[in-house]
Amino acid sequence: MRVALFVTCLADTLSPAVGRATVELLERLGHEVVFPEEQTCCGQMHANTGYPAEATALARRFVRVFGADDHDAIVSPSPSCVGMVREQFAALARAAEDEQLAADAAALAPRVHDLSELLVDVLGLEDVGAVFPHRVTYHPTCHGLRGLGLGDRPLRLLRAVRELELVELPDATTCCGFGGTFSIKNADTSAAMLTDKVAGILRTGADVCCAGDASCLLHIDGGLRRGRAGVRTLHLAEILGAT
Amino acid sequence: MSGFASAARAGLDDPQLRRNLRQATTTIRAKRDAAVAEVDDWEGLRTAGAAIKDAALLALDAHLERLEANVVAAGGQVHWARDAGEANAIVTALVRATGADEVVKVKSMATEEIGLNAALAAAGIAAYETDLAELIVQLGDDRPSHILVPAIHRSREDIRALFERELGETGLSTDPAELAGVARRHLRERFLRVRVGVSGANFAVAETGAICVVESEGNGRMCTTLPDTLITVMGIEKVVPRWEDLGAMLQLLPRSSTGERMNPYTSLWTGVTPGDGPQAFHLVLLDNGRTTALADAIGRQALRCIRCSACLNVCPVYERAGGHAYDATYAGPIGAILSPLIDGFERHATLPSASTLCGACYEVCPVKIDIPSVLIHLRGRVAREHGAPPSERAAMRAMARVLGTRRKYELAQRALRTAGRPLSRDGRLERRLPGPLKPWTTFRDLPAPPEQTFREWWRSR
Ligand code: SF4
Questions:
Q1: Is the distance from CB of B376 to CB of B357 less than 8 angstroms?
Q2: Distance between CA B138 and CA B108 in Å, rounded?
Q3: pTM to 2 decimals?
């Protein structure tokens, strides 16, 4: 299968290892990955902060870049950005009364997948042949959990990883407090939420906190490191990519 | 820092409040989940609830006129109030006309919203709250901090001290039953003495003129049945078209709010019945910003709210900052959208940003209010119409320009790396950053921009 990678601006710039792991994993599974280099950003931050005009321009750009049919599916290591393309593009198009964007977004939506969806639903895989001899806890990020309804797909993938010990995270479904610009505008409340999330991670005794969204991980990792907690964060792609 | 962000600090720094909220919301969440899991088709019920409220809102004027006609036909009187001032004047005049100088009240968010107690006090009329939690708030000269449990921020020890001070009791323990007993004795005397009752309404049925109040303590039923005169103040969005609509609503509300299959007391009355209950009934229909909210095509779904408070109980922001941080009658996720919509953006411009958009509120809302989408929409309204900080606007525009072309984007990535290099050590930024990222780096480490972006790696392989 030919898969187009939407790496997201944040992962591209600050967490390139996530994109690299996604590419290596898919290639190891025998698929071809293409990276449309014109891509920049899906506009999620603008949309969520209340700047729909800017977000709409980025959405138009996105459907242009990924609208080509030289690939069978689009994958992204960020459920919140997948949700943006799948749900919010349509809402932006409606608000802007942009019929072209509405049509393009509708055509694109079913082709865009989170990594765990692509693996489990499209490729029918749970065991991707990974080996990862560590104690891991998993934080299901809000947009993956409630926005995309990923359910236990990521957990099924993790359970199939050899030598990986999966430990349950207390209050796993509670938000980590990132919320994009929320963590800037309401830094104190965000910090209180992060502190509780970090405390939950530490209680598991895990070496690694895994999640499927590079942006939430950036935040959680920032809190763990500031506290010198000695726990690493890894994206799901990085664990599934490990051999 | 202003608005919610600064108001939140008091709650964040109060360990007692944090513990109380955490305990209370954790317990109620578990109860709610269990009560909801019992229902075969909860999703179907939610859809029905949303449809009922939407049907009511889409032809609100017609339903209200029908309600009015049926209330009058049943011997009641209907008064229309555009805003808080009008509503308070109407209620004050009605109480005065009875010759009474005191009223007993059943917990009502509508009267909280219009500040009725203060207005009555200014007119020399004492208003006694009879809901236990409301009583605690009133005795403490405090503000409610939760829709359903207004005194959720108070500990038992607080309440014991309050009762000793305000009700002249001595030697009380913190046993909930003992404290409730004290309140009961205190309230009983008032129920039997006071001749005017004031209530809110959970629902009003247009086709019959029936008013519905649900509660847990039975004190509300005392207020609506013992006095000679009953005055109900009701937001106009509380009307439902048909009697049978209550079937869905009375399943959705108790399971969502208290985690019970049915709340202990459901009172329904239609006008007056000679020789039974109040002999005079007044219904005050309150707009107070609701028709303005109705004009907002995306925001109007907030008017479906049945005040179950499920969204507060699951909100991680509410749980940490506490209800007072919202500085509004309605706290939590619903408060963050309803307050600006009905009370204007001047005081509430920061509320739509007081959320991470985690979606927990939407997931539990029994009438499917898409709170995250409304929050996003209202953020847009703040940015466009109500003066978001110019620095924010400038940053968003600049970022959109950079992200608008591949060339500018890649240049910016390189610029970021160059700027980050002298500030970083061991892959982290050494310092707390100035400017908009300062709050972020106060509490978290930021990674240094890596030596190679993903796209550089892609091209190099
Ligand atoms: S918004 Fe929904 S969940 Fe929140 S109080 Fe209203 S009805 Fe309940």
A1: yes
A2: 13
A3: 0.94
